[in-house]
């Protein structure tokens, strides 16, 4: 829950060297939390800072891009772009960039997700100008040289094989592809292995020129004066031009026209199947049919497409696995929905984890999945709840990993029973308050990290245009009642459940059997 919701903002007119900038100071609780300031540059890049004293500074560039926005012919681009960060640019070689990064004495990285691509640095205060210049150079001027692209594609192939070998890593990815078949959040987060030979420098440049638009960028920082960061961003990113987004994408049969670049043009231009491929190739061909000229989506369609939950039941036969893995998921609520707080409390209530834990009080050992599942069934190795939150939906659910001697047919009823208790039995006040406190403390403790604080600020401004304070979130969490949780439970996995039903993914030697009968027995779903 790193994103923000709604609050009043106060606009303050402040003299600036950038007279056309719009500056906002957000401070709903001035006596308790520091100011968060947001300035919009003339080219629509937003700059945000949060006063956070310390010996280090952090700055990050947060881009509204990721796998959910990939057109079929660009599938896998965000994964490779992640790996291509800080390689050769039109200004310097990858070796020079590496040497300059090491001179920062901090950490600098790039990561991609379904909805965001992040470039972030943590460093000494005096290194902020250098850090921002490095981020700017790799974002605007990357050459995507053929040799460097090929090396990163080989590294990505190795990464895919490593992830595929671990069910606990690959199954959440396959779960999304099943829950959102053929659209947005169902697009592969990892580059499909059959796509690797098709990706080259031109592919990556097309993705960057399409999505790295100034109005889709937030640059956030902590540890430096707001005006200093505004001036640095204007220096290193002010030349990015705002160009109205294209509305029509060229057809596949035509000579592909590169999207108009918002970036400074570089002076140079670049000249037996794995298990993951076996698992995803069939799914991609079923859920993501090859595009034709008439079906290739436009920029506007991709940018505004809402996640379409499809649900489904898939069994992946793996006789080589000792364990059976079960994922049960439901269509949840978006980050904008106030019920997201109640659903987060339900996740904390259910909790769970591994059969072995060095934890104790305050670390989830009193959660329901620990108390009533893991502590009662030695044949269960892992049982936990999860909640993946996005801008227009979320994926809420439970997963269970069972040993071979676990009674077949018992796994799904155990999970259904825990959900049923939330629908038909009141939660003891002590247990509810404990879950609320655990959720609030997790928010506060996470923000003790400067890097997480900056990422939180950047993501919030990217999605909502402002920051929501921990105090505001805590107040909303505190107001959640037993009745609220029951109502939310009915909405997500009770009688108000999505008409497409649950998403059920099983990997192992045996499937779960008739899930509809289990749901009817425990009063889940649309009765």
What does this structure look like?
- With 527 residues, this protein is an alpha+beta fold.
- The chain contains 17 helices and 14 strands.
- It has helices at residues 77-83, 94-103, 128-140, 146-164, 167-179, 201-211, 226-237, 275-287, 299-304, 339-350, 368-374, 411-424, 429-446, 450-464, 470-478, 482-493, 515-522, and strands spanning 10-11, 22-26, 36-40, 46-50, 56-63, 107-112, 117-124, 217-222, 312-317, 324-331, 352-354, 380-389, 394-402, 503-508.
- Strands 1-2-3-4-8-5-7-6 form an 8-stranded mixed beta sheet, with helices on both faces.
- β3 (36-40) and β4 (46-50) form a beta hairpin.
- α12 (411-424) runs parallel beside α17.
- It is globular.
In brief:
With 527 residues, the protein is of the alpha+beta class. It contains 17 helices and 14 strands.
Which helices and strands, and how do they pair?
Layout: E1 10-11, E2 22-26, E3 36-40, E4 46-50, E5 56-63, H1 77-83, H2 94-103, E6 107-112, E7 117-124, H3 128-140, H4 146-164, H5 167-179, H6 201-211, E8 217-222, H7 226-237, H8 275-287, H9 299-304, E9 312-317, E10 324-331, H10 339-350, E11 352-354, H11 368-374, E12 380-389, E13 394-402, H12 411-424, H13 429-446, H14 450-464, H15 470-478, H16 482-493, E14 503-508, H17 515-522
Parallel strand pairs: 4-8, 9-14
Antiparallel strand pairs: 1-2, 2-3, 3-4, 5-7, 5-8, 6-7, 10-13, 10-14, 11-12, 12-13
Helix pairs in contact: 3-7, 5-8, 10-13, 10-16, 12-16, 12-17, 13-15
């Amino acid at each position: 829950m790193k994103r923000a919701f709604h609050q009043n903002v106060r606009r303050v007119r402040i003299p600036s060297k950038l007279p056309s900038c719009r500056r906002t100071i957000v401070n709903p609780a001035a006596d308790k939390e520091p100011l968060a300031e947001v300035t919009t540059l003339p080219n629509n890049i937003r700059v945000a800072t949060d006063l956070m004293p310390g010996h280090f500074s952090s700055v990050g560039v947060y881009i509204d891009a990721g796998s959910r926005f990939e057109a079929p012919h660009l599938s896998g681009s965000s994964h490779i772009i992640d790996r291509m960060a800080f390689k050769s640019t039109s200004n310097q070689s990858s070796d020079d960039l590496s040497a300059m990064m090491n001179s920062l004495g901090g950490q600098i990285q790039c990561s991609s997700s379904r909805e965001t691509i992040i470039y972030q640095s943590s460093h000494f205060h005096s290194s902020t100008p250098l850090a921002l210049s490095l981020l700017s150079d790799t974002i605007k001027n990357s050459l995507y040289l053929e040799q460097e692209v090929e090396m990163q594609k080989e590294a990505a192939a190795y990464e895919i094989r490593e992830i595929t070998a671990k069910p606990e890593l690959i199954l959440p990815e396959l779960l999304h592809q099943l829950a959102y078949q053929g659209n947005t959040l169902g697009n592969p987060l990892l580059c499909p292995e059959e796509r690797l030979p098709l990706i080259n420098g031109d592919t990556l440049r097309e993705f960057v020129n399409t999505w790295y638009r100034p109005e889709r960028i937030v640059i956030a920082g902590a540890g430096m004066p707001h005006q200093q960061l505004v001036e640095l961003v204007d220096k290193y990113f002010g030349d990015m031009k705002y160009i109205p987004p294209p509305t029509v994408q060229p057809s596949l049969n035509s000579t592909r026209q590169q999207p108009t670049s918002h970036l400074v043009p570089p002076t140079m231009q670049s000249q037996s199947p794995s298990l993951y491929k076996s698992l995803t190739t069939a799914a991609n061909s079923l859920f993501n049919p090859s595009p034709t000229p008439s079906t290739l989506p436009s920029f506007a369609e991709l940018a505004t497409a809402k996640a379409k939950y499809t649900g489904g039941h898939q069994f992946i036969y793996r006789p080589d696995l000792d364990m059976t893995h079960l994922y049960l998921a439901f269509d949840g609520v978006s980050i904008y929905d106030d019920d997201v707080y109640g659903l987060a409390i339900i996740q904390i209530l259910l909790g769970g984890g591994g059969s072995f834990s060095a934890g104790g009080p305050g670390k989830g050992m009193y959660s329901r999945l620990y108390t009533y599942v893991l502590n009662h069934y030695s044949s269960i190795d892992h049982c936990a709840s999860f909640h993946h939150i996005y801008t227009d939906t979320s994926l809420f659910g439970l997963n269970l990993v069972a040993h071979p001697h676990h009674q077949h047919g018992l796994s799904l009823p155990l999970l259904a029973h825990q959900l049923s208790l939330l629908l038909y039995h009141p939660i003891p006040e002590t247990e509810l308050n404990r879950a609320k406190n655990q959720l609030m403390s997790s928010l506060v403790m996470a923000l003790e990290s400067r890097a997480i604080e900056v990422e939180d600020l950047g993501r919030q401004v990217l999605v909502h245009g402002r920051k929501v304070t921990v105090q505001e979130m805590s107040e909303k969490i505190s107001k959640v009642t037993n009745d609220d949780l029951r109502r939310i439970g009915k909405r997500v996995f009770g009688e108000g459940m999505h008409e497409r039903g649950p998403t059920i993914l099983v990997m192992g030697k045996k499937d779960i059997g008739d899930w509809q009968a289990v749901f009817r027995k425990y009063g889940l779903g649309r009765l």
